[in-house]
Every structure is written in C-alpha cells, then in structure tokens.
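Good morning C.,

I know you're traveling, so I'll keep this short. The sequence:
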Amino acid sequence: MCGIVGYVGKQAAGSILIEGLKRLEYRGYDSAGLAVIGKGHFDLVKKAGRVENLARAAAVVKLTARTGIAHTRWATHGGVTDANAHPHTSSDGKFAVCHNGVIENYLGIKKYCENHGFTFSTQTDTEALVNLIAYHYHKEPENPGKNRFVSAVRKALLHVEGAYGIAVLCADCPGEIVGARKGSPLVVGVGHGENMLASDVSAFIGRTQNVIYLDDGQVAHLTATDFNITTIADEAVDPVIATVDWEIEQSELGRFSHYMEKEIFEQPTALENALRGRFSDDHSTAKFGGLNLDPIQLRHIDRILFCACGTAWHACLVAKHLIERFARIPVEVDYASEFRYRNAPLDKNTLVFVMSQSGETIDTLEALREAKRKGHRVLAITNVVGSTIARESDGGIYQHAGPEIGVASTKAFTSQILLAAMVALYLGRLRDLSFTEGRAMVDAIRTVPGLANQVLDQADNIQAIAKKYAKYKDFLFLGRQAMYPIALEGALKLKEISYIHAEGYPAAEMKHGPIALVCPQCPSVFFVPRGEILKKVISNIEVIRARKGPVIAITSAPPEEFPAHLAEDIIRVPDAHEAILPVLFTLPIQLLAYHIALERKCDVDKPRNLAKSVTVE
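The tokens, ready to paste straight into the viewer:
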C-alpha cells in the first residue's frame, strides 16, 4: 500500500515524480505529495485526494530542482488531509521523508523527539521517523570519510519497530536520495545520468528497465551518476541488477475505459502465457522449471498447506479441490494472517505453498518466513519477478500474466487457478494419475485460452444482465465443490468495486441460515456445472425460487439439462474438463461485477478504502 517515487538526475524532478505517482496510484489514492530540493530548502506540495489534485497544485509552482521524492497515500495513521499527506518534514526543516508501512513504536519515538526540542504538526507515525533522523543528523560529528546523511538514516532505523519503505531527502545534500526497506518493497531504477527509487517498477518503467530489488535491512544511497547499497549495520552489499521483462505499453489503458476492463479481456493472453513451455514432450503432464524439488522429494510429500490473502486465498481453495481430486494429497488452506500468529502443527512431510500476485503481500511474506523458520520447504506462485516472496521462497512458479493495475484482481486470479490445475496434474502424474488421464487433462488445459475468448464474447449479454441487477443491495453467490471458491470470489468482486453487500456460500449450506436473506430484493448467483451434482444444484435453485428470490445462473449444462425456466437469467459457458471449469466460470462474474459497478457510477479501478498491494498489517 502507498506508492513512493524518488528521482535524482539531469531533468526537472517535478513532472517525472508526478508521472511516476500516476503509475502507482493503484497503491493508494487518499492523498499525494512531493518534495524537491531547492536552494537549501524543500519545495513541498501536498494535496488530499487523487494524484491529479497534486498535479494541478504543482503546476502553479515552478519546480525546477533535479532531485525529489513523492508519495501517493493509503491512510493508516491520521485522517485524509493535506497536512497528513506525505512527504513529511522534520521540524528543523532539514529532512523530508516519504514512508510506506507502519512505525509501531512511533509514540515512544515522538515523545523522545519532543523531549529534544522537535515539534509535530500531523497525526502520522512518519513525522516521528523524520524527526528522529534529524535528531541523529545533528548528533553525528562531521567525518570526511563518512556520509553524515546516510549515517543519520541508518541510526534512526535501528530504533524503529514495524515495517517501512522510505525515501529521504536532506536539505544539506542536494543531488542525493537515501532509501531503505523492511517489510515494504523498494526498488532502485538504474538509468543513464539519473537514478530512481520506487515502491514498484511501474513508476519508472518508461525511463529504465534496469532495477535493483532491495532486501529487508538494506539502505540505498543514490546520486545522479552512482548508487551504493549497504545494510543498516553498514555492511557493503554487492547489488544484482535485474532487467524488467515488460514494456510500458503493457501498463497503458489503450482502447479500454478502465484497467479492470482491459485486464478482463487480457485473460486469454495471460492464460496462454501461463501455459507456454510447461508441458512434457509426451503431453501427459505439466513441467515447472523453478520448483527446486525433484520428483523423489515430491513423492515424499504427504500434506500440502496453502497460505494467501484475499483473492489469492480463493485461488488456494480451488487448488485444494483440484490437488485432492487429481493427486490425492490432503491439502489445507489457511489465511496467511492467521497462520503467522498461531502455532500450526505441521509434520515434517508438509509442503507449504504461498500465493501472491504482487509477491509483496506482508501477511503472506511473513507466513512464508514462519514456515521456513520451522524447517519447511516453501514454494510460491506469484506474478512479479524479483518480488520479495519470489526471492525468499525455495522455489516456485511465475504466472507471467503481465502487470495488473486494477485493484480488483482479474487476470492474476484466473492464471493462479489455471496454474493450480497444472500443479494438480503434475503431482497427480507423480502418483496415481494414469498416462491417459494426464493426456486428457493436458488437452483440456491447452484449450483454456480459446474457451475464455468464447465466454468473453458474451460481454454484451452480461452487461445487459448487470443493468437489471445494479439496483439491488444484497446478493448471494452459491456453488458447490470447486465452484464454492468461485462463489466467494464473485461475492468479493461485487463488494470490492460496487459496494454491494454480497455473500458466498456452498450451495447446500444455503439452507443452514443464509436462506433467511432470500426475498425478491436479494438475487442469487448460482454456479451450475454439468455433472454429478447438477441435479443437486437445481434443487437448491428451486428452494430459492419458491421464496421468490431472483436467480442468475452460470452454467455449462446444455438447455435440455438446464432449461431457461430455472432462472431469471442464464449465462452459458462451454462445457469442459472439470479441471478448467473454475477459470471459465470466473469470467462472467468479473464482467457482471464490472458492469454493475459502472451502472452505480463507482470507480472500478480505485475502489474506496482499497489498495492493490497490502504491505501493512
């Protein structure tokens, strides 16, 4: 959450910083601000609201300085006001700081700084940190062989409890930026005659594709022509420069009205990318190059634990169903935020999987670390090469879905559940799944991009259905087996972007309480796959309709098995192998939520109170 951009180079920093913030606004959009170094002082502009408000305010001021930092905020400490927007400055005017994360002991730091003459004007935890840096700077003796600016930041951070990603300016050091991270991502962009700092590579992807992903406990010192990475303990770090493998056009809207719409329609391509090069030569199983576990080691696994948050947690529930179905390995799914704080009993043959689109979700990252502390192998499914989770896991699988900007996940979710099907296939073939069954699954999985296009071709029909239901204030989403996680995801999507109360349940559980909500003003969305439970789900639908509840059915059954009279509205998806049906059933609910949100005039790309990457507890 929150976005940081820093620039030091040959050009005026102001416009570069604002452009970077626009690319990071999905990380937080409560307020935005920037600071550039003038002649011994900071030119500071801060505005509540969207980055566009900041851009208008900054246009009035001539920002010619070539060094600066900027921030777009998702509020944690303090209300959404101009004053609480970042950057924050020390009361002596020497330092400016942009900060992602939470300083848990800020009250103690604040009291200490007040006792040493520093004053405070905001409600934020960040102001305590910037004053602490100033305190150490004034204590630091002049030393020609030591950078006083970097030393002050380092010493201040030794006293900080909590998570942070920071960018710091010093009024005495024009042409320098210091950054540091612990628990909140920070990336250095290495340019020609310029260097940048950001919480996400998308902030500077148009200027450089050469990046250094900082690890926890590292400090970066940037000038226009050089950079230096050390630890907080002042130990030298030999940085690894990586290359970002996507172009700026992939993060542009193009012909679409919203990023969510764009990313919904990018799914056939994203799914194709997830499959590419991942099948054996005989087309009987999947193959993954980065698991770092051989088949013999995987044969000894007798239990799998998946940890994730939000939409990724729903993908893990799909993975549980598919792995148990095709590989016959017991699977548990835990919220990462719960796993990290409870003493979960894991036997020695348990394999842990974590799943995170960004690879930076703080609870998932800490769950990974907790599992590794207990001696377990941890594999990751993530979309971002170079992310912290990708670097700290023992192995894993990249989604290759491309950048996902819309806050409500779409293509990342479907690529996660497609990869879950491939993991189930791979593990199944290591055990009891026959060659013939493996070939059938591979053949089915390879059809997913084309079948996804067929579903998306129904967008106009789904839009018409959305218009009928946009007025309702409550929804139920109901499915069984692998469709239950899709019901949860459908309810979440509707809540996230249209602010409609929605609940997802196993269809049969509807009778055990949720049926009390059923009435003409509460539509139910049913997921109705063809197969052995078809008649059971139809019975559940009849119970709803007997109580005059409107029904929207998403089904792979043909009209003779699921006739039109069973629901007010029907969305038909292609009948397919059960391993890929969760992908196909997901696409209509994304379009339904998207168009309902538009009808309600909601901002689908920047829903209230949400941010894309959750990097604070």
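Safe travels,
E.
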